[in-house]
Design brief:
Layout: H1 26-46, H2 48-63, E1 68-72, H3 74-91, E2 98-102, H4 120-129, E3 137-141, H5 148-159, E4 163-168, E5 181-184, H6 199-218, H7 235-248, H8 253-262, H9 267-276, H10 280-289, H11 294-302
Helix pairs in contact: 1-6, 2-6, 3-6, 4-5, 7-8, 9-10, 9-11
Length: about 300
């Protein structure tokens, strides 16, 4: 990390396009935001190579018993916790597989605790407390790139042999890193100077969406573009599961519902049973032999 005056950081600059922000009509304000938000999409596109590398390395780590940790402070920390929290209901992944750590703990999700981001030792302690090992992946998220909490965590993670990812919205010449994978989301100056919950936050959310979803696809938790590992925990999700089974098979709604119940409310297992003709236990064993990858399991059994 370089010793740079924060005022020179890209994320702290004044946006010349919004200098009359307080004079704009409501419609003009919305239009300005819409134009500026296009920079978030462009920033993620320019980071596609390191993002793809992050997906590949993380999926490989998780296949071998590792975990993914997001770590950050303020908005960056909240975005990491949000992405981690959405993995279990979307992919039926165990809560410990993807975890979010925010400076200040759970209380910081609802109330600002940005003063705690200055403690690098707290970041290191969070790594120790989570018992990070060489099997794990730690992604440090910091829009301005300088957050001591994040850098302390990444250093501690490197010392433990974990794979490290650095996600920031400033160029490498402003803030350098020793992380294994360096993702820069260069969204430019914010409409509201220094408010990185705006474009920087949007680009970060997009990148995390891609990272976690890409990893889960690589782990076989998706078939085509369907969430076949979705947790069937309420009426809405049961209806979605049945419709998914109907769409992917030749079954009517009643038969799809019966198959879902026979599988123990697992869409993936239900599909494996239907496509292979095996019973629940045999289908479960087949999936286990292929690390839960439905396509690989079915193709192997059916000789494709």
């Amino acid at each position: 990390m370089t010793n740079l005056d924060r005022g020179h950081l890209l994320t702290e600059q004044v946006n010349t396009n919004s200098q009359n922000l307080d004079k704009l009509s409501c419609l003009e304000l919305v239009e300005l935001f819409n134009r500026e938000d296009e920079n978030a999409i462009a920033a993620v596109a320019k980071a596609k190579v390191p993002l793809a590398t992050a997906i590949e390395r993380t999926a490989e780590a998780l296949r071998h018993g590792g975990r993914l940790f997001y770590i950050g402070a303020g908005t960056s920390g909240r975005l990491g916790v949000l992405d981690a929290a959405e993995c279990p209901p979307t992919f039926c992944s165990p809560p410990e597989l993807v975890q979010g750590i925010i400076a200040g703990g759970a209380g910081a999700l609802l109330r600002s605790s940005e003063d705690l981001e200055d403690r690098a030792e707290d970041g290191a302690s969070a790594i120790a407390g989570s018992q990070i090992t060489k099997l794990d992946v730690v992604a440090g998220i910091t829009a301005g790139g300088t957050t001591p909490f994040v850098h302390g965590a990444l250093q501690a993670a490197r010392e433990r042999g974990a794979t490290t990812i650095f996600i920031a919205c400033v160029p490498v010449e402003q803030v350098s890193t020793d992380a294994d994978i360096d993702i820069r989301l260069l969204t430019g100056a914010e409409i509201l100077a220094g408010s990185t919950r705006l474009k920087a936050g949007t680009a970060t959310k997009l990148a995390l969406n891609i990272l976690s979803t890409g990893v889960m696809v690589q782990l076989g938790k998706v078939y085509g573009n369907r969430m076949i590992d979705v947790a069937v925990t309420n009426k809405k999700l049961r209806d979605r599961a049945i419709r998914m089974l109907q769409d992917l098979t030749d079954l009517n709604r009643e038969a799809a519902g019966l198959l879902l119940e026979q599988s123990g409310k697992s869409v993936k297992l239900a599909l494996a049973m239907h496509w292979t003709g095996l019973d629940k236990a045999e289908s479960d064993r087949l999936l286990s032999q292929h690390q839960g990858n439905l396509r690989a399991a079915v193709d192997s059994h059916n000789g494709s």
